[in-house]
Design goal:
Length: about 290
């Protein structure tokens, strides 16, 4: 919330320098409290504070001129977030073209990804979750850039997506995926490049991954019980992370072969829960 312009000034006669100082102090305290906890400061709140400290009646200017804005409702204003919905809506022969991994060897341009046992594809899940994330991030003031434009065409190779993310100047890069493991395996894990290939990978990306892991746990998601350590997984084989010069993570939101997680992923409200949790992780990293 923020201070509004609805609060009118109190108009009373008389001016006393000392009381003026005390009144300013009271207003400043009220403003600080609102910055910390978020509130709207009505004019009568200032009058109450003045009454508590025994000041004399005096003119009170418009509150909005005195009170700094509380915590912004657009904490990501001025920030760029690059979102990569993993895989592509369709594939062609170029999928097996070899591209650099960032560690001296090559790998396929792109992979098909996995699916639930009922055939709901990973690329559609990632596309839909990223769409929800984009809306949430933009509402928070971020500029959002995507690695692919739709869920029907052949998307960019993994190295091209890293180049796009680097060129975007993103403050945070998030690649969204879902895994295809055993039926009894479940939970999320957050990947980052390791061993690091530049300073950003050594520092910011690890911080981002840890913040995301902590936020997802706080949102009620369960760290993977079959890979990684407590929801974190350093990886050397993911080209998008290896080639990144921006704070970058890859989030495997869950296992599409787990009946419980497949149910969550194929449900619109479930996808919204995933998206909301990851957006909170981005906010935690960029504005926390
Ligand atoms: Zn994937």
């Amino acid at each position: 919330m923020r201070a509004t312009s609805r609060a009118p000034g109190i108009r009373m006669p008389g001016t006393r320098p000392r009381a003026e100082q005390v009144r300013h102090a009271a207003l400043a305290l009220a403003a600080l409290a609102c910055v910390l906890v978020g509130c709207t400061i009505p004019t009568d709140g200032a009058a109450t504070a003045r009454g508590q400290i025994g000041g004399a009646p005096e003119p009170v200017p418009e509150v909005t001129a005195q009170v700094p804005r509380p915590a912004s409702s657009t904490p990501l204003a001025g920030r760029t977030v690059f979102l990569d919905p993993g895989h592509s809506g369709s594939q062609d022969a170029a999928m097996t073209a070899q591209v650099p991994t960032g560690r001296g060897d090559t790998k396929d341009c792109q992979t098909t990804g996995t699916a639930t046992d009922d055939g709901y594809p990973e690329h559609t899940f990632t596309w839909q979750v990223v769409g929800l994330m984009r809306t949430g991030l933009e509402q928070l003031g971020a500029r959002v850039v995507l690695s692919r434009t739709d869920d029907t065409s052949v998307g960019n190779c993994v190295d091209e997506r890293a180049a796009l993310a680097n060129a975007s100047g993103a403050d945070a890069v998030v690649s969204i995926h879902a895994d295809g493991a055993g039926q009894d395996q479940r939970g999320f894990h957050v990947c980052y490049s390791a061993p690091p290939l530049n300073d950003v990978q050594a520092g910011a990306s690890v911080t981002f991954a840890t913040t995301m892991r902590d936020t997802l746990v706080a949102a009620g998601l369960t760290p993977a019980n079959y890979t990684g350590t407590a929801g974190l997984q350093p990886r050397a084989d993911l080209a998008g992370l290896n080639l990144s010069e921006r704070p970058s993570i890859l989030v495997e939101l869950g296992n599409m072969r787990s009946p419980d997680e497949a149910r969550e992923m194929t449900d619109e409200a479930g996808r919204a829960r995933y998206a909301r949790a990851v957006v909170q992780g981005v906010v935690g990293y960029l504005a926390g």
